Amino acid sequence: MIRVAARQRLGGFALDVAFEGPPDGVTVLFGPSGAGKSATLAVVAGIARAADALVVVGERVLTDTGARVFVLPERRRIGVVHQDARLFPHLSVARNLRYGWRRTTGERRIGWDEAIEVLAIGHLLDRSPRDLSGGERQRVAIGRALLSQPDLLLLDEPVSALDAGRRAEVLRFVAALKQRFGLPMLYVTHSEDEARLLGDHLVRIEDGRVVGQGSPAAMLPVRQVVGEAVGPGMVRVGEAVIAVPGVDAPSGAVVRVSW
Amino acid sequence: MLRPEEWEALRLSLLIAGQATGFGLVAAVLFAWLLARTRFPGRVLLDAVLHAPLILPPVVVGFVLLLVFGTQGPIGRWLDATWGVQLPFTSAGAALAAGVSAFPLMLRAVRLSIEAVDLRLEEAARSLGAGPWDRAFTVVLPLAAPGLVAGAVVGFAAALGEFGAVITFAANIPGETQTLPLAIYAALQVPDGEGAAARLSAISFAVALGGLLLSELLLRVQRRRIGR
């Protein structure tokens, strides 16, 4: 179980959110830009200190302003992935991955080989981050966070800096991650597609407040489009290619997708 | 080609400039960190004081060092009483004078490079479990390395060429504090010394050029390592 509550004034903006998420699924923080989603993540990660906040991950209380509890970000065991991968430019991919791995204490639940296999980054280990494509960079960033053995993974718009093709690719890996490791994740996005594809629980945030929460299917409007299948799980709708898991129509076939 | 006392001046110069750069760079990293990453009252004043050797006449720097580190100065007396160390008129004193004079240049280069390190990378290291010292040694300093190299090079060059502060604080003693510029000055004070002065000047030029080439090489290696 993840419990988060934060109240904070940032200039003219007031953040006042409270929500809970499932212990081993993806909680999507959904809302327009500037709604306070990233500010909420910063409170969870401990990067921002809210005047009034509660952050509980599983059994661990990380922030409780009432009880004067504040665990430093480096001791939170929370992995963070941003839209810019923030890989260390002076280290190889392997050494980036090892950065968090080496600093863990105790038992490692997520294996080195397993994580590398799920993210398909084995062939990149000797490369320098600057020689990676955008999608590869994000996968390495996710791997680096994962290998630090986090109790919770925060993903702050991890694919919004990528083009449509790369986006589908990285989303596939995030979905695989969810299947394989059963790790709770907080996923920030303003994309309905991503929210539907990955979310188990959706928290809608607008103007710094939670305006509703529930299952993604219940929280997002039903839509239907007609498109053209372009590959397994990929449908072209107009100019855009979207990921639709389960589509296996031959390329070129006209498909109707409703959700 | 060179006379023994000229070799001695070269050896002393490299030793003194090396010590001045080594200790100066460590101090520069500490103070640059303080100035770049922390906020405290008196920060602007500290910044000004640290830069003073850059704008003061070198003779004044040497004189202030005499007041502070001289046998009657507060720190000088303590050093003498506690450790039996005397700085004026010694090569260690010459290194101190050269290092203090060169310090602002090193501080500037190091500070700029520390400020240029992306704070978001440090944040990433933090979320991966790295504490403050860990982050400093594994993220910030490696990424600031080109600035540290640049600081060391300008610092070494400035220390090598320092005249006023060194001669004021450590005097012009052959074999002890007589560095290349001091030896050139001394050569010019005697009749027919132009030949010696020219040779010493040529050595100074060669050392400076060598240092510059070495630093360029180092910088290239560093840049490739951090991917710029």
UniProtKB/TrEMBL annotation, chain A:
ATP-binding found in the keyword field: yes
Domain of life where this protein originates: Bacteria
Pfam families for this protein: ABC_tran
Annotated SUPFAM superfamilies: P-loop containing nucleoside triphosphate hydrolases (SSF52540)
Annotated ranges, domain ABC transporter: 2-232
Molecular-function annotations in GO: ATP binding; ATP hydrolysis activity
Protein name as annotated: Molybdate transport system ATP-binding protein
Lineage: Bacteria, Pseudomonadati, Pseudomonadota, Alphaproteobacteria, Sphingomonadales
TrEMBL record, chain B:
Database matches in PROSITE patterns: ABC_TM1 (PS50928)
Keyword Cell inner membrane in annotation: yes
UniProt entry keywords in alphabetical sequence: Cell inner membrane, Cell membrane, Membrane, Molybdenum, Transmembrane, Transmembrane helix, Transport
GO cellular component: plasma membrane
Pfam family, one: BPD_transp_1
Molecular function terms from GO: molybdate ion transmembrane transporter activity
Residue stretches spanning the membrane: 12-36, 48-69, 89-110, 136-160, 200-219
Topology of this chain in the membrane: Multi-pass membrane protein
CDD domains assigned: TM_PBP2
Highest taxon, organism lineage: Bacteria
Compartment list: Cell inner membrane; Cell membrane
Residue span(s) of domain ABC transmembrane type-1: 10-218
Function field: Part of the binding-protein-dependent transport system for molybdenum; probably responsible for the translocation of the substrate across the membrane.
Family recorded in the similarity comment: Belongs to the binding-protein-dependent transport system permease family. CysTW subfamily.
Protein name per Swiss-Prot or TrEMBL: Molybdenum transport system permease
Taxonomic placement: Bacteria, Pseudomonadati, Pseudomonadota, Alphaproteobacteria, Sphingomonadales
